[in-house]
Amino acid sequence: MEHNNTLAYYDNHVDEFYRSTVSVEFTAVQERFLRKLEKGSYILDFGCGSGRDTKYFLEQGYCVEAADGSAELCKRASQYTGIQVKQMLFEELAVEDKYDGIWACSSILHLPIDKLVKVMQKMMAALKKNGIIYTSFKYGTFSGERNGRFFTDMTETTFADLLQGVTGLEVEEQWVSSDARPERSGEKWLNLILRKK
């Protein structure tokens, strides 16, 4: 149910969300992720939102597939990136050994803990050996609805606990940052780069 409310939020606020995210300067994190991949690697942008990161990765010469659960965001991101963005729920990921990297920037944080563990298992399976995942969560211990959407926040400790349920992934890097949107610079984020063992 929470997930449906969240998707409805994005469908109903597509213009506002697109405008507030598409031009956010995020190069430092994008490059931190790309430095761990060979040029031309295969990336899944998992919950791509406006398509900002997909477009950047394509421009840097990577092969990118993009997916989002919101039908309206898929349309907008397809127009922006020039590739067909697939409408798909996180739980519907069902491929194995396909991607060198999965980029899940402030996306899977919309799942409750039990679903989050299952989806991360699917993400791990979808990676090639030694593949990497970048993901991010609002920093804290809150779980529930906030501003019309469901969020699971994370700290280093709560994420380490979560990862116990996902065999085969380990934290390679983690860091806390301020929100990249200037008007939200007081909000903190937990950023993680995970590697498939």
Describe this structure in words.
The chain has a single domain, classed as Rossmann fold, CATH 3.40.50.150. The longest helix is centred in the middle third of the chain and has 14 residues, at 113-126. It has helices spanning 2-12, 14-21, 27-34, 52-59, 71-81, 113-126, 156-163; strands at 42-46, 63-68, 86-87, 99-104, 127-138, 143-146, 149-152, 169-178, 188-196. The N and C termini lie far apart (34 Å). It is built from seven helices and nine strands. With 197 residues, it is α/β, with parallel strands linked by helices. 35% of the residues lie in helices and 29% in strands.
As a whole number of angstroms, the C-alpha radius of gyration is: 15 Å
- Which CATH class? Alpha Beta
Largest sheet: 7 strands, mixed
Measured distance between first and last alpha carbons: 34 Å
Inertia-based shape: globular
Secondary-structure element string: HHHEHEHEEHEEEHEE
Strand content: 25-35%
CATH architecture: 3-Layer(aba) Sandwich
Structural class: alpha/beta
Short summary:
By secondary structure, the protein is an alpha/beta fold.
List the helices and strands and how they pair.
Layout: H1 2-12, H2 14-21, H3 27-34, E1 42-46, H4 52-59, E2 63-68, H5 71-81, E3 86-87, E4 99-104, H6 113-126, E5 127-138, E6 143-146, E7 149-152, H7 156-163, E8 169-178, E9 188-196
Parallel strand pairs: 1-2, 1-4, 2-3, 4-5
Antiparallel strand pairs: 5-9, 6-7, 8-9
Q: What descriptive keywords fit this protein?
A:
197 residues; alpha/beta; Rossmann fold; seven-stranded mixed beta sheet; two-stranded antiparallel ribbon; 7 helices; 9 strands; 29% strand; globular
